[in-house]
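dumping this here before i forget
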Amino acid sequence: MHLREQVANETETLLRVEGLKKVFRSGESDLVLFENLSFEVKRGEMVAIVGESGAGKSTLLHILSALDQASAGDVYCAELKLNSLSADEAARFRNRDAGFVWQFHYLLPEFTAAENVAMPLLQRGKSWAEVAPEASRWLREVGLEARSHHRSGELSGGEQQRVALARALITGPRLLLADEPTGDLDGRTAEAVFELIARLHREHQLTSIIATHNLSFARRCHRVLRLERGRAEEIRPATLPA
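structure:
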């Protein structure tokens, strides 16, 4: 199913990026990764970020999730100005408002799938008795309730990524950010994981931003932003290869 067939009911802007710039120091010179990036994401939208390796997709997601700071410009999530947050406030934002899925799952190998999913709530100081039912519910959402007591090394790559997705969503975030979430998976497994992300996006009314090299997946999002030569260009999803 193409997500563009699902018209978002909300028109309110959740994420607003204004004049964003990121500069890295490289030897004696500055490397400008991107500059003057400005765009908005409405509530309920699923936006793909595409571009060549090194274009800045991952760095942009890190800035949007308050994992990194821009060199200039502003990022607002609702009315929260992310680049003005203290380190503690940024950590709270990530724990409560933003769920992040990486290309690599980053599950803790010594813990079970259920414990990995529950980790964001345990970090809030909640007890295992409080969070265990919620962890089970989210494992059921991603089709892995029967694997709840398995450690990450006992799970397939696709299962590990589904656990990581459940972990990202257990806090009920407003914003889901995914950095090449299917990049390490074979074609069939990648398709299943993307379909799972799309279903959870719809059913839980998420606002999602996905960095991907997979143009077939990107064209099934509501909108596509292409990073190229330090600029962001919006392109029509239908113009991308299937």
